[in-house]
Amino acid sequence: xxxxxxxxxxxxxxxxxxxxxxxxxxxxxxxxxxxxxxxxxxxxxxxxxxxxxxxxxxxxxxxxxxxxxxxxxxxxxxxxxxxxxxxxxxxxxxxxxxxxxxxxxxxxxxxxxxxxxxxxxxxxxxxxxxxxxxxxxxxxxxxxxxxxxxxxxxxxxxxxxxxxxxxxxxxxxxxxxxxxxxxxxxxxxxxxxxxxxxxxxxxxxxxxx
Length: 209
What we know:
It is a single chain. By secondary structure, the chain is an all-alpha fold. The protein is built from ten helices and two strands, in the order H-H-H-H-H-H-H-H-H-H-E-E. Helix 5 (69-80) packs across helix 9 (162-175) and helix 8 crosses helix 9. The longest helix has 35 residues, at 113-147. The protein starts with a helix and ends with a strand.
């Protein structure tokens, strides 16, 4: 499996396009802003790895953290995400522990594996509702811009939900890693849209959910 194939499989799992996919496939790089640079700190990458592991945990095959997703996410945020999504991701990440303390009385990394799964499931539900509303609003912005004769690059782009981005990044990082490409089932603890017409080739690894 190459990067393009991995991106296609991630898109199938989540039931939509992958944010920053084109820049990722082109191998673009750019310097990190001061805010984004924080993500490259060791404790932040460890935190991101734990969040990713809750989404795609170790089973009979390695999980997201072992696949290096915690180190992958900052690179994608820096190189492939627009400023509005960078800002939304950073703000969402900053609020993870506060939300965990509100819901469970302790920080995310102090939660049990079962509690972490409950937490990410809660976030996933919220993200799906948010993304639907965002899609409707973005469609209207695009239509209004077209009517007024604006170019596509002049249209305001609404930010995505933090968890929507985190989930995409987790799957992209995992399935483009050596571990994900060679050893793992195409497994996601929180599944996306079901596609009964998705082509299956003999020898493909099975999905699990």
